[in-house]
Design a protein that fits this description.
about 325 residues, alpha+beta, Glutaredoxin, 3 domains, three-stranded antiparallel beta sheet, 13 strands
């Protein structure tokens, strides 16, 4: 009887302990459950914010893209595909040339093609139509090359394009620019001109044609020797034009006597710095009066009387 009574309290005690353990477990479970829900809610909110941000960025990119497209369309308005391709001549590889041969459908495609070619090619050169290039050259010749009273005109323009290699020829110690076609069949050798620059300058000072093919260097100082203006004459005994000019300038120089310093350079290398400055190509006869006036060539076309008159006038000017 006593043993049965003692067993019942022990059993009740175990039941109470079990209930307490269950209560603790349930308490822990329900305590943690709201935290998990809150975390999921926060993650959901963060995801929604990220999506909203991406949508805003996407909208901005679309706006920028639309604005860029409008600017590109505006830039190509009034521009034809042909004009874009003709305005740029690009040196390309063989593969790129095949792309150029495929004519673009519109100006927008042409602009894209030109930009891609320029970006991928080593050289991009703005070209002129044959007639425009010829007229630019003629305007240059009339302004700087031909004597006053004469005029050059375009006689004929040939549409074909010929590519040349540029090189220098050394003839008796003088370098001359020359061009040979890439097929080795045509040679050009003449004085070289830069059509975008004034060729008529000496030491940075412009010179102009004044009379009888004499040139005046604007702003030049009179070069002197012992206080006397120097008059130079360069020639050669084997040059017939020098033979014509020599007695005339010698006679004029004697008229001025000791008032000038006369340097007559025939078949010698004296005063070469002066000759190279006023006649870079080494042309003779060359006359330099006080480093202010000069002339390359003889006065045979105007006659000895006018040549003598011009020499007297110019020497008097440097003496003033």
């Amino acid at each position: 009887m006593n043993e049965q009574e003692n067993a019942e309290p022990k059993k009740s005690k175990k039941i109470v302990i079990a209930l307490v353990v269950i209560a603790v477990i349930l308490g822990v479970y329900y305590f943690n459950k709201p935290n998990n829900t809150q975390q999921k809610s926060e993650e959901k909110n963060s995801t929604e914010q990220q999506q909203a941000s991406n949508e805003n960025e996407g909208s901005k990119e679309e706006v920028k893209s639309e604005e860029g497209a409008k600017e590109e369309v505006k830039a190509t308005e009034g521009v034809t595909a042909d004009s874009l391709i003709k305005s740029v001549e690009v040196k390309t590889t063989q593969d790129t040339k095949k792309d150029v041969e495929q004519k673009p459908a519109n100006s927008k495609d042409a602009l894209a093609l030109v930009n891609s070619l320029v970006a991928s090619s080593p050289v991009a050169v703005i070209t002129l139509e044959p007639k425009q290039a010829a007229e630019k050259a003629i305007n240059y010749v009339n302004k700087y090359v031909v004597p006053q009273g004469q005029e050059a005109k375009v006689a004929q323009v040939f549409p074909e394009k010929i590519t040349f290699y540029r090189f220098l020829m050394d003839v008796a110690g003088q370098n001359y620019p020359a061009y040979v076609s890439i097929d080795g069949k045509k040679l050009l050798s003449a004085k070289e001109y830069d059509l975008d620059k004034n060729p008529n300058t000496i030491d940075g000072k412009e010179y102009v044609n004044i009379e009888n093919d004499f040139q005046e260097v604007k702003g030049a100082e009179i070069c002197k020797e012992n206080g006397k203006p120097i008059v130079y004459f360069f020639g050669s005994s084997t040059c017939p034009h020098c033979d014509w000019e020599k007695p005339i300038i010698s006679e004029v120089a004697k008229l001025f006597g000791s008032k000038i310093s006369y340097h007559e350079n025939i078949d010698n290398s004296k005063d070469l710095d002066v000759l190279n400055k006023f006649s870079p190509q080494g042309g003779i006869p060359t006359i330099v009066i006080g480093c202010k006036y000069f002339k390359v060539g003889s006065g045979e076309t105007i006659g000895s009387a006018k040549e003598k008159q011009s020499l007297l006038l110019l020497i008097n000017k440097v003496l003033q």
